Amino acid sequence: MKKGTAAVGFILGLLLFLSGDPICHGALQVGFYRGKCGFADVEAIVGGVVSAQFFTDPSLLASLIRLHFHDCFVNGCDGSILLDGPDSEKTASPNQSVRGYEIIDQAKDAVEKICPGVVSCADLIAIAARDAVFLSGGGIYRVQTGRRDGLVSSADIANVTLPGPSITVPQAIAAFADKGLTAVDMVLLLGGAHSVGVAHCSFLSERIHNFKGSGKPDPSMDQFTVNTLRSRCPINAIENTVNLDQNPFSPLVLDNSYYQNILLRRGVLQIDQELGMNRFTRPIIANLANSVDFPARFGAAMVRLGAVGVLTGTQGEIRSSCRVVNKAVNKDKSG
Predict the structure, then answer these.
(1) What is the residue extent of each domain of the chain?
(2) Which bin fits 38, alpha (ψ -120 to 50), beta or left (φ > 0)?
(3) Would you say 71 is a known binding-site residue?
(4) Does 255 appear as a known binding residue?
(5) Per CATH, the architecture of 2-162+306-334 is what?
(6) Which residues belong to the active site?
(7) Could you report the per-residue pLDDT of 37-63, keeping only the tens digit for each?
(8) 194 is in an annotated binding site
(9) Where are the residues marked Transition state stabilizer as a site (predicted)?
């Protein structure tokens, strides 16, 4: 217990340092909330919530990184993935396995008690993702804030926008380019997320059991990896999960072992292995596999992701509840 408390104290101290002097980057800036909640440090408050969850369930860290990615890829980083509704982004097929909503709710409750109506839900996702990266061993970066919350959340848009597990490398490059992100950003973000993430067996069953109807596994996959995945994912066990990083020593550590495994033909998803075979992305994979500055490069890519399609200034709103737009909240209170 004392060890966990000391660790949380260290993390909160580090976050307090990182959220110090404001640094401007376009419409967003580091330290946006400094002085806006009295003497309270918003990022340290969020860090406390995320750290507490880390000691309860470390696997949630990957969920927070994924939550940020899925939010930013659909209409920009506007917190729209958090909105409830029968046709909201949450209900889209790619978001059925997304987790972390309750952590953002807890963070929102914590900051609302201190300074209501100031901190956006979109920023809470970005801050929580930064903390998750750090707690996963992926280094620390200074998160930009100042986003405002979107008013629209569409499952239809999410279904056609979010990259699926069967996406090809050219399609992935095009999808990221549409968001103003480069092929290097794509490899960094997919690799970073997959180094701590998991996948349901349904996403790889065909690849390890009946690749393209051959009755055999994908020949591009290392046989040892095939055997390992088959033991975890028998033909009918589609709900089981496997680590996307097949390094047994660091399945929950955000490092560059994912890229090393791809070069060894141990990519779990089809897109993972194709990144190592494509003539444009293989050199990027090889470079990152031997990179000593992967944490810094991944952090920079996360900052660029966090700036996609943001609402700032008077755009959007600052939601009182991350699950509903303010009109709905006010209507419920008056009713």
Answers:
(1) 2-162+306-334, 169-298
(2) left
(3) yes
(4) yes
(5) Orthogonal Bundle (1.10)
(6) 70
(7) 999 999 999 999 999 998 898 888 899
(8) yes
(9) 66
